[in-house]
Amino acid sequence: MSVVHERGNARIEANLTPMIDMTFLLIVFFVLVSRISEVENVPMELPRPIDPATVPPPEEGRVVLNVLPGPDGTVEGYKVGAAQFAPTPDGAAALERHLATLLAQNPDLDVNLRADRATSYADISPALEAVAAAGRTSDRAASTRINLVVVNDQRRSVAR
Amino acid sequence: MSRHGARHAISRRARPRLTLNLTPMIDVVFQLLIYFLVSTNFALGEQVYRVDLPNREEGAADPFALDEEPLRIELLAAGDATPGLVAIRIEGPWPQPSSFEELHDFLESRRIDADRPAGLFAPDHPVLIDPGPSVRWDVTVDAFNAVVRAGYTNVGFADEP
Q1: Which residues, 6 or more positions from A127, have their beta carbon under 8 angstroms from its beta carbon?
Q2: Is B39 in contact with A136 (Cβ distance < 8 A)?
Q3: CATH number, domain at A105?
Q4: Are A14 and A79 contained in the same domain?
Q5: Predicted local confidence at residue A94, as pLDDT
Q6: B16 and B10 in contact (C-beta within 8 Å)?
Q7: Is B24 in Cβ contact with A18 (below 8 Å)?
């Protein structure tokens, strides 16, 4: 016993490796998650149709067009990625130009339209028309595809 | 002399053991587990309806192709008091449905398929949904769902609201 103590006092150390591992993982996690959710999926109440005949969303080649909900069924603007456009005729024209640029880069791009369930159609129709008009200016052969995003609680989808 | 003797005494008392520290690995595995549990919930149940917006202004249409008259379904808001309520009107001499379930039944019963060769509308017959300006988006989607569920593939929105 006395022989062991001759080497020095026993030291108590905290092993920091697991904490650093966890911290880095949490950082990576929040960086990724916050980017995805803020840029693409603006929080809103999507429509929940009864007995929906929907299909799974495309994995690639799509851009998300959010119709930002305001109070009482109004809209605050249209958002594509980080770019935001005002709900005015000028804003709709700017949205059309932005989408046309994206479609020029990738003519097979799909547009995912996310809109709140309480938004009135008068505010969504300019977004639909902007997508259609942008599609007409692109090289796409037949038609521009727009995907209406809804919540499917039943987890049932149809093959089309 | 005494130091050398002491070291010898230690190594004789306890041999150094080779152990694998599993704590960081377990941390990482738990983190990954939590990550996947959470991340699979993000787009929970988000699915889509596909709509093809035709590029109508291109003039190279087939001159011999018959231009099919689309079946137009109008949605008229009943008033501000009941925002979810709409009147459904099918353009033409058809029975007017009072709910989206009836709209679905009407469209399905008139679709041409193997069981009903005498049906009126082919599955790719164009169907246009024409919501009024104040119609809520969820009501519009309900109408869209009724048409898609009835087996029609060529569903779109009318140009002017």
Answers
A1: A65, A67, A78, A92, A95, A113, A115
A2: no
A3: 3.30.420.270
A4: no
A5: 93
A6: no
A7: yes
B50 and chain A in contact, CB less than 8 A: yes
Report yes or no on B34 lying in a domain.
Answer: yes
Q: Which residues pair with A68 in a beta bridge?
A: A77
User: Which B residues, 95 through 154, put their C-beta within 8 Å of a C-beta on chain A?
Assistant: 131-138, 140-142, 144-145, 148-149, 153
**Residue A32, in any domain of the structure:** yes
Do B153 and B78 lie in one domain? The reply is yes
The answer on B143 and B90 residing in a single domain is: yes
Phi, then psi, of B110 in degrees rounded to 5: -110, 10
User: Which CATH number belongs to the domain containing residue B99 in this structure?
Assistant: 3.30.420
Residue A94's CB is within 10 A of a number of other CB atoms, namely 17
Of the partner residues B27, B39, B51, the one whose CB lies closest to the CB of residue A18: B27
Domain that holds residue B16: 2-39
pLDDT tens sequence across B125-148: 888 899 888 888 888 899 989 999
Answer yes or no: is A116 within a domain.
Answer: yes
ipTM of this predicted complex?
0.71
Task: Please tell me whether residues B15 and B93 are part of one structural domain.
Answer: no
Chain B residues with CB inside 8 Å of A152's CB? Answer: 45-47
Let me know: does A146 contact A109? Beta carbons within 8 Å: no
Q: Choose the closest CB to A53 out of B9, B27, B149.
A: B149
Cα gap B24→A17, rounded to integer Å: 7
Give me the half-sphere count of Cα atoms (radius 13 Å) on the Cβ side of residue A68.
15
Q: Closest approach of chain A CAs to the CA of B66, in angstroms?
A: 18
Mean pLDDT by 10 residues, chain A (160 residues): 60 77 75 60 82 81 87 86 88 91 85 89 89 79 79 59
Q: Chains A, B: CB contacts under 8 A, how many?
A: 167
